[in-house]
Specification:
The chain is an alpha+beta fold. The chain is about 20% helix and about 20% strand. The protein has a five-stranded antiparallel sheet with strand order 1-2-3-5-4, covered by helices on one side. A hairpin with a 7-residue loop joins strand 2 and strand 3 (about 35-45). The radius of gyration is 14 Å and the shape is globular. The structure holds guanosine-5'-monophosphate and zinc ion.
């Protein structure tokens, strides 16, 4: 989508600190990290959210999860991490391009205290 901020990052129109990329997905550091490791992993193809994803998206959704450990380890969170996919209004999703937050790097304290 032309005016989607994460599609613009995929196209290189907005700079991002890329930590992993392949033909299907892109991972980059969150601009406002809440933990020492805070990476966003997105499908390169525009999918608005899990609310709009379908079975056609199975492979790319699986790829995001399958690569999560490798990405977390490469960024210094080898002892575990959380994967958070905020979805829609109730999920308080702010950027309407599906993204998984990979957060870790320290034991959970402060705003990322485990809440579910
Ligand atoms: P959400 O609340 O939608 O799950 O999370 C959106 C995330 O995107 C936030 O953590 C925010 O800091 C991050 N973000 C928003 N705009 C940009 C940007 O232009 N670049 C990067 N790297 N992260 C962004
Ligand atoms: Zn997009």
């Amino acid at each position: 989508m032309s005016d989607c901020i994460f599609c613009r990052i995929v196209r290189g129109e907005i700079p991002a600190s890329t930590v992993y990329e392949d033909e299907e997905i892109l991972a980059f550091n969150d601009i406002n990290p809440l933990r020492p490791v805070h990476v966003l992993v997105i499908p390169k193809k525009h999918i608005t959210s899990l609310s709009t994803a379908g079975v056609d998206d199975t492979l790319v959704l699986g790829r995001i999860l399958a690569k999560a450990n490798e990405i977390a380890c490469s960024q210094g969170s080898a002892d575990g991490f959380r994967v958070i996919i905020n979805t829609g209004r109730v999920g308080q999703q702010e950027v309407p391009h599906l993204h998984a937050h990979i957060v870790g790097g320290t034991d959970p304290v402060g705003p990322m205290l485990k809440r579910i």
